[in-house]
Write a structure and sequence with these properties.
The structure is a homodimer. The first copy, chain A, is built from twelve helices and twelve strands. By secondary structure, the first copy, chain A, is an alpha/beta fold. In chain A, helix 1 packs across helix 2, helix 1 packs across helix 3 and helix 8 packs parallel to helix 9. Chain A binds a DNA duplex through helix 2 and helix 4. Chains A, B: InterPro entries: HTH_LacI, LacI/GalR-like_sensor, Lambda_DNA-bd_dom_sf, Peripla_BP_I.
DNA sequence: AGCCGTTCTGCAATCGATTGCAACGTAGTG
DNA sequence: CACTACGTTGCAATCGATTGCAGAACGGCT
């Protein structure tokens, strides 16, 4: 405790040091040496290194990241961007976004990256993606959902490598995507309900976004193939919680004939639906079956617990990060389409 | 379309420009002028300004943020940090965190700030706050929850201005906090149940964190004052979803006597409790009343809908940001303790 | 023409850390 | 003693944008 400050003035308490040069002055070495010492470079003498590190600790010194990143031309920051393309009122606090974001953040933090959160509204800002990609602020970009911006994303992906997107994979697309087979998922959901003997179904969800459109197509295909007078109506339900609830209420009372089962585009929609049905005195699953999509953690916490089509979000997030890392290092990465999984609980 | 490139070589397509100097070369002006033109400084001729901006667009040029931020000594980035002090297994995807984070992100993005997400684990990294604060990466810090790190936060707050924390306010504390009157909230919850004639209550929540401890104290006070044989047991339930569910199951079967009402430390705990009770064949609220805390959006989506103590998260987030802005501009800001509000729905 | 004032542009220093290269000191060897 | 080799350290250029200050260009006025 008494052996580490032999140079500075006696009365100096613990003056805050703001840059390497100052610390170098105190340590009696050059700035370059301090930089190397703090970076644990092997070429600096072990004793000086320790001395400098101790001094840095004592004076509460941290290297200025801005300067460091500028010089090294890498930032250690990954942007997670959420495009609010269609449905601009969808809040960033959407439970699916937040769940995926949480897992991504954990994954990235563990690898020493910082996470920068970006909300993008394409209608208001034409080159939204460019802004993030070319800001010089990030080493890579993870995108949650394609919204209706498929072409814009393709455009950027052609010249910008470190980009991985959660969403659909179309044959021959340029950007690397990780996601679930939405068509199959939609089909599985509908088939499950049909298999339970239900014939009059409704799909709840706005099909402007690619992913949900595919889910709808899957459900349609299942119903068409099934035949036997099965039919599928469609109500576009928006994703913002505020709109959703009312729209579902309206939908439930305005639909044609007696609906037996609802295929919901997301767990959030499914939960809101169950709520509204409860309100209307319709019991789930006795009077109407409801099946969700996503299998968010909260699907297990609803009453009744949600039967849903599971996307493996945790593993998907890990795969996104893995692919991004590969791309940052100059490598390449293929798309990943994960199989959906039917999780049978109590709502259908 | 044909009037903006009269200097460069004829065959040059749209070469990517990487820095101001290059663009200056193309435009035939100096770097300084380009910088000023792109920043819309009034002192540059309107015609040159437009020409330069057009050129920048055409070549897909964006100023390097790292360099800009270094020079200007401000970053335009706010860190949102989540201390996982006690209860390290609590996931960053905790619904309360995520909800508050979502609103904060919206609020900050609107003001032109970027949001940097930081998960901090004090046990593993002693100077966790210092790392963020002194990295030179952010203009300010918003913290979600105090966890058990009150003293560490105080320490930093004494010398670091732009810091605002969601959490409790103790008399004379140095850091600026925004939060709810947790003691009063806990008291209101218990009083409400007592008022319904329930006498045997349990508080579900781990009191290591300050906020929850205060809620518990409030509930205790209410029960003590009420007298008449009312009593309050306590089960520490952790905040991570995985642990929570099992612990609640155990709690419900191991408690002393016939419990009539549960005061939960959070909505997440309340929902998990309702689930477990449902499993055990205990009807809510008929057999047992359950009251939550927070009033997260999902409180309205549970079945039965949650009766809960509302924290005004949206307004709280706005206030946090407002105070942070004031501090960044060198001003000062007082703490805010918001009154909790009893929201009566169906679970109690 | 000469002078002043205004408006615009260029020059060069600056932010703070990093790193290739040169130079230093010391020890070891012939 | 001279010379090489190695291990350290210092020097100075560099990353890219910003900005105070000086100076150029131009118009207007006497």
């Amino acid at each position: 405790m008494a052996d580490d400050s032999d140079i500075s003035a006696p009365e100096a308490p613990v003056r805050r040091v703001r840059n390497i040069a100052e610390l170098a002055g105190i340590a009696g070495v050059s700035a370059g040496t301090v930089s190397r010492a703090l970076a644990d470079k092997p070429m600096v003498n072990a004793r000086t290194r320790d001395r400098i590190q101790a001094l840095a600790r004592k004076h509460g010194f941290q290297v200025n990241q801005m300067a460091s990143k500028l010089r090294r031309q890498k930032t250690g920051v990954i942007a997670v961007v959420i495009p609010l393309g269609h449905d601009r009122r969808q809040h960033i606090s959407d439970p699916f976004f937040m769940t995926l974001l949480g897992v991504l953040a954990d994954e990235l933090t563990e690898r020493g990256y910082d996470v920068m959160l970006s909300r993008a509204i394409p209608q208001e800002d034409a080159n939204w993606l460019d802004r993030v990609v070319n800001s010089g602020m990030v080493d890579g970009v993870l995108m949650i959902g394609q919204s209706d911006q498929f072409d814009a994303i393709e455009e950027v992906a052609r010249s910008y490598k470190p980009l991985v997107v959660w969403g659909s994979n179309r044959a021959g697309q340029a950007h690397c995507s990780v996601g679930t087979d939405n068509f199959l998922g939609g089909r599985m959901a509908a088939e499950y309900l049909l298999g339970k003997g239900l014939r009059s179904l409704v799909f709840l969800g706005d099909t402007t976004g690619i992913e949900i459109d595919e889910r709808y197509s899957g459900a349609q295909a299942a119903v068409a193939e099934f035949g036997q007078g099965a039919r599928l109506q469609h109500m576009p339900i928006h994703l913002s919680i505020e709109e959703m609830t009312d729209e579902i209420g309206v939908a439930m009372t305005s639909l044609d004939g007696n609906i037996e089962g609802a295929v919901c585009a997301s767990d959030a929609i499914a939960m809101a639906t169950i709520r509204q049905l409860h309100e209307l005195g319709v019991a789930v699953p006795a009077d109407m079956a409801v099946i969700g999509f996503d299998d968010l953690p909260l699907a297990r916490h609803s009453v009744p617990q949600l039967t849903t089509i599971r996307q493996n979000i945790a593993s998907g997030a890990a795969q996104m990060v893995k692919r991004l890392m590969a791309k940052i290092e100059g490598g390449d990465a293929d798309a990943l389409v994960m199989p959906p999984e039917l999780v049978i609980r109590d709502s259908a």
